[in-house]
Design a protein that fits this description.
alpha/beta, 6-stranded parallel β-sheet, two-stranded antiparallel ribbon, 32% helix, globular, HAD-like_SerB, metal-binding, HAD-like_sf
Length: 255
């Protein structure tokens, strides 16, 4: 059974990557402007995510599956993402992504960015083109929280040793159940609810908030100690287990 010291779960669009994939697909259909407006409203929490996604996916009807390759070629990883995933792995953690986007893109992108496991929506296809419908259950905010908890349980990671990173209203449920909820390049409602606000440019800013590397023969999976907290400039008693909720924030919440 695979175990980990901690778990980091990210959103994909505008977090793991700089793009909004559904907007790139909508561009293939010549309907980017209307889909972009609906995406922004959903991320602000003004529209129910599942309802919004169904209407946006409907705008993709008729887009040929060959468009997936063109969209994948336009994906821009967020600066610092590979540094972050490498640091997580070096310190004994696991990286997950739960996205309201699509497996058709994420399945090709995630492995190259150091992601260990991921979940997203699937697009229904018939006769080589999108039907304008989602295939299966929609990955919404509740699903994001579910997968964070499920992966943590599978990996033997305590809830306090989980970190969730996102930018939109549908990321709030997983941020609420994580030990540390980080708003990255986020909408105002998300910034207000997050444990910390980071970014908006480089995911490498998360690295100082990760558990310190294990050292010494007495170190065990799931616990570690340090003489200073993950946030630079703050201290805690030697021997105190790392806990995101304990750490003194030094990053501006942006309020």
């Amino acid at each position: 059974m695979t175990t980990a010291r901690f778990l980091v779960v990210l959103d994909a669009d505008s977090t793991l990557i700089r793009n909004e994939v559904i907007e790139l697909l909508a561009e293939e259909a010549g309907r980017r402007a209307e889909v972009q407006a609906a995406t922004e409203a959903a991320m602000r929490g003004e529209i129910d995510f599942a309802t919004s996604l169904r209407s946006r996916v409907a705008a993709l009807a008729g887009v040929p599956v060959e468009s997936f390759a063109r969209v994948r070629s336009r994906i821009e990883p967020t600066p610092g993402v590979r540094d972050l995933t490498a640091a997580v792995h070096a310190r004994g953690g696991v990286v997950g992504v739960v996205s309201g986007g699509f497996h058709e893109i994420l399945d090709e992108v995630a492995p190259g960015l150091g992601v260990d496991r991921w979940r997203a929506n699937r697009l229904e296809v018939a006769d080589g083109a999108l039907t304008g419908r989602v295939d299966g259950d929609i990955v919404d905010g509740a699903a994001k929280a579910f997968w964070l908890r499920t992966w943590a349980e599978e990996l033997g990671v305590a809830p306090h040793a989980t970190i969730a990173i996102g930018d939109g209203a549908n990321d709030l449920p997983m941020m609420a159940v994580a030990g540390l909820g980080l708003a990255f390049n986020a909408k105002p409602a998300v910034r207000e609810s997050a444990s910390l606000v980071i970014g908006p440019v480089d995911l490498g800013t998360v690295i100082p908030l990760l558990p310190w590397p294990m050292s010494g023969a007495g170190s065990t999976v799931g616990s570690w100690t340090s003489s200073s907290s993950p946030a630079s400039g703050s201290t805690r008693p030697a021997g105190t287990p790392w806990s995101p909720r304990w750490s003194e924030p030094v990053i501006d919440r942006g309020r």
